[in-house]
Amino acid sequence: MKTKFFLLTFLIFSGFASIAQFKSAKIGIDGLTCSMCSNSVEKLLLQLDFVESVKMDLNTNEATVIFRQKYKTDFKKVSQKIYDSGFSVREISTSLNFDTINLDGNAFQVNGDKFYILSEEKANLSGERSFRFLDKNLISKKEFSHWSYFIKENDKVHNEKQKAYHISL
Amino acid sequence: MKKILILSFLVLSFFKGICQELFPYAESASNIPKNVLGMRFLFEGYKEIPSQRQRNWGALRAMYGITGKTTLMVTAAGSNHHLAKFPANLQNYFANHHQRVYKPNPYLLEGINIYLKQRVISVDGFQKHLRVALFGQACKSFVPHDESEPFLMGDNSGYGGGAIITGLYKRFAISFTYAYAHPLLYKDKAQQITFQAGDANNYDISLGYRLFPSKYSTYNDLNINLYVEFENRSYGAAEMTVRDALYDFSYLKNFDQNVYYSLMDGKYSEIKPSIQLIFNSNNRIDIGCAYPFYNRSYTHFYPLFFFNIQKYFYFSKKKKKV
Predict the structure, then answer these.
(1) I need a surface site. Which of A65, B158, B176, B179 has the fewest CB within 10 A?
(2) Do A64 and A29 touch, CB atoms closer than 8 A?
């Protein structure tokens, strides 16, 4: 009985530890100027189950998205909602607390997804650090083209279950 | 010359101002967002000359985003522009139906239009974009149209399509539309009448400018947009047969010249200035009018007034509470 209880608490806590590490993200959106378009983007982002709230800056077309705790954050779904609204992603940036993350060379894992750091040779990370994504549709087409060769090669070894993200600090 | 000066002034004043591409008349190359439903009520009215009767046209349009790049629109239109069938006395009808002595037309369901638009090119930047879309449309009409110029929004059964190029830069938007329309032959078997309206080519230019606000504070800010749209159209002559014999319209020259020209081929340009109000970043009202700029359209009289009311409906699932 006791062992079962301990096992259960351990499982719950380990579950908490490995999920919901992303608190928020900033999304720069291209191709719109008026508040009616921003309204559509906000309404579509709120349809995602892991999105708690969205704050739109109507003058710079930047969305600040707060994520719900205990839900897995999927940045590719975030990007898809921007394109479904009829617009493009300029940049998505977020942050993590790297004290609890084990770096494996220039890569690390969060919630089962693999993150590759492309901007630095050997990253030395600690504390809260922000970064931006370099993957297709998570950054402007122009900037993606700088990184596309490596990202495409890397994407081949990943699938829907374990997504690969590429980031720049 | 005066017209050209006014036109160039309008165009220049727009460029100087350097959102807006929610054109009241033209469709822009952008789309309604995925899984969002838009509803629009459209109205057009003018006074018929010489009868001074009010002629009204109204339509209800449902717009749906199948994907972020594909929009489907279904429009049902009604008006008091037509009779349910051509009358037995055609000569009296054509010569006098714009006169006060002729009995007024009833309100009828004109037709149903289906329109599909696909965005094929998007180049987005910070507060700007350049987009290209292709579209096709088809209309099933329930009334006999009696003019050469075709309208696929109810007047004629037929099909058409074209391309749209839209540019947006900060508060200014410009759009070019090319559209081709092919009306189908109207047949009245009982009376042995056929009516073929002409094919039409449209080359439209639309300009839009966000007048207010220059800077947003909340979604509740009232948006005021100004538009000037130029509709340039050419179309072929109408052809009518009665009991398999070609019907000759030339006698109409001595009666109502407007009716005579409305059956011939033609080309014209119209200018459509309008103002748009958007409340709470969703509820949209457009009010505008149309004036002839070069020749004129014989399917309606001037000034023509129009207004649209539109709203988007967003569907969202209820989120589970944790």
Answers:
(1) B176
(2) no
Task: Residue count of chain B, please give it.
Answer: 322
Q: Provide, rounded to the nearest whole percent, the portion of chain A with pLDDT above 70.
A: 86
Give me the domains of chain B, ranges plus CATH numbers.
19-314 (2.40.160.40)
The residue of chain A nearest to residue B170, with distances taken between CA atoms, is A33
Q: Say if residue A9's pLDDT is above 60.
A: no
- For A146, the 3-state DSSP assignment is helix
| Strands of B245-246's sheet in order across | B186-188, B193-196, B239-242, B245-246
Among A39, A59, A87, select the one facing B215 at the smallest CB separation. Answer: A59
Question: Is the predicted ipTM greater than 0.90, yes or no?
Answer: no
Domain ranges of chain A: 21-168
C-beta atoms surrounding A78 within 10 Å: 24
Query: Are the beta carbons of A84 and B34 separated by less than 8 Å?
Result: yes
Please tell me the class of the A21-168 domain: alpha beta
Alpha-carbon distance A91 to A109, whole Å?
Answer: 21
The shortest CB-CB distance from A35 to any of B127, B170, B223 is to B223
Q: Are B57 and B45 in contact (CB under 8 A)?
A: yes
Please report the pLDDT score of residue A3 as a whole number.
55
Residue A34: band (very low, low, confident or very high) from pLDDT cuts 50, 70, 90: confident
Alpha-carbon gap, residue A4 to B274, rounded angstroms: 72
Q: How far apart are CA B256 and CA B164, in angstroms?
A: 37
CA B210 – CA B22 distance, rounded (Å): 10
